[in-house]
Amino acid sequence: MFIFQSMFFFTIVFFIIKNVSGEELKIVKSAPETIRSESIFYSNDIHGYHLPLAAHWNTGFWGEHGFNPDYQLRMIEQGHYLIPSFYLPDPTRSNMNFHYYEAAIRKAATLNLPISFISTQWERYLSDSPNFFSLPSERNPNVIDISGKVVNKVSPFGPVAVWREMGRKWATTPVLKKLQQWYPAPPLVLFVSNNEHRRLDWHEVESSRRYLAEHGKGRDGDFKRRVVGNGWIERYRALQAGLRAGLDSEVWREKALFVGFNAFGTGAFGRWPGWKKYSLYTPQRIEPWPLAWDGASLPYYVNNWNASTDYAVMSPQIEAMNWVFMRGEAQRLNPGFWLELSTWDGHAPTKGNDKRKFYERMGQVFDPDRYEGFVQFGMWLLRPRVVREFRDERSSVAKDGPYFGAVISAVDRVHNNSTLSRFWKKGRLVANHRPGHPYQENIPIEYKDAERWFLVDAELNPKRPWSLDTKIPIYSLALVVGEKPNREWLIYAHSPLEARAMVKISVIDSFSTTIDVPTSGIFYIYSEKNDSVYKVT
Fold it and tell me: Which of 199, 447, 478, 516 is the most buried (most CB within 10 A)?
């Protein structure tokens, strides 16, 4: 047995191998070792999908009771699988708090952990800072309208050099320089942008003087979406190139990945005929973003601003199924594409449209167990590198810790159960070709046959046709490993509204079984060889 010694107390996992004599040996891996190894493999690694890591959008910078780096490091010391996240130092702030960073970044260095930096959108100051907004038109990165007025949103047709300059400003703050000294050789550095700055939409391009000068009026939607998408590819890559070039450390430059929130295709693909208005689809390319970013953090959100819920056809679970084929395209365009899942239950306690208040009015409770069931469905559908929970920047561990705890529990479960680890790495997601995804409006011809429906048939679920508000009692999916006649299926199911007993589900034509399904979700294995079903514990 190999023994790992550390100054910290960690939960450990065992990997069993055989030596040349056939004797089994246990290799012990600590949580930090596992976090490091699962974060640095290439995204299309031959070993299969990487085991997931938990993370948070709230880095505790705005309040001592938030999910700050010290809290995150304590969770890792307790044996949980997190990638530490820090607030990225803002180039417009002169009073940055070195104390916020030092102890945690030094501990991360001691443990040789990957790290991530969360921030606002890096290009925002191209519009929001007078130094850039007041530039003459030939150097101005914002939209210039047909009258010559500067509009407060960035343009895909403006000068590129200023984007690179903006990226460099983010990389050359005194705090970031100091962090590179404290941690000179991390295995991975993720820079994660909120990526929600105001941009010229493709259907607005004829209001842009630059666009009209180059392309004129009357072009069709596909043309407009293509030139806008190509413009963003060039400018966002310039922004990132400036940030990378501005880093002092050669290791940081080499290990940096740039991830954009929602830098991906829309989950609303096919939900209504006009979905392309909110897309940059062009024939043979669902979106340009995999060419503009190293990765994306996808919004698996029960939004508080629309009718989305976790229990109906208009739900993140149903929409996320569209991301499966989009992920395949993203990785063909960019083989190293890093995919995260951002999760949120729509909780906005200071707003009238808070989703938990909506559930309460419906006589429901959205507790951490229900959240965990919801999160696990998205995880097992997409098998992301990171599951990153969103909460308001001023949320606290005391109030929202149990919900992040549900995310951590879902991630830990994959690491700590050898059966789940095996299926996560090597399982093949089972597509359900009958009757297909309920979102079928205005589907481009090249995606007509894309696999987009993975909900396992459950007897409790209503018969088709469905409307957007049709309730779905059971959300279930399946993964399969092996080949006939020795296949095994992993079935995951959760029941958002209430625990349900004796639920009959059918995995295509392979088998049917009856299982109990709680709100927090449950896993079962069906063995073809033994014709048996058992619960994963």
Answer: 478
Tokens 């210039």 correspond to 144
Rounded Cα–Cα distance for residues 225 and 57 (Å)? 30
146 phi, psi to nearest 5 deg: -65, -20
DSSP class per residue in 444-505: -GGGTT-----PPEETTSPPSP--TT-B-S-EEEEEEES-TTS-EEEEEEE-SSS-EEEEEE
411 CB neighbour count, 10 Å cutoff: 23
Both tokens of 74, joined, read: 């304590």
Instruction: Give the confidence band of 44 by pLDDT, cuts at 50, 70, 90.
Output: low
Structure tokens at 79: 């044996």
pLDDT at 394: 81
CATH of domain 47-427: 3.20.20
Q: Which pair of tokens denotes residue 302?
A: 């029960």
pLDDT digits (tens, 9 = 90+) for 310-328: 999 999 999 999 999 999 9
Q: How far apart are CA 2 and CA 78, in angstroms?
A: 21
Looking at the chain, how many residues does it have? 537
Residue 506, SS3 per DSSP: strand
**Rounded-to-integer distance, Cα 429 and Cα 479, Å:** 4
pLDDT(55) > 80: yes
- Report CA-CA distances (Å) from 170 to 115, 165, 240, 260, 293: 17, 9, 10, 15, 17
Q: Strands across the sheet with 500-507, in order? A: 457-458, 500-507, 511-517
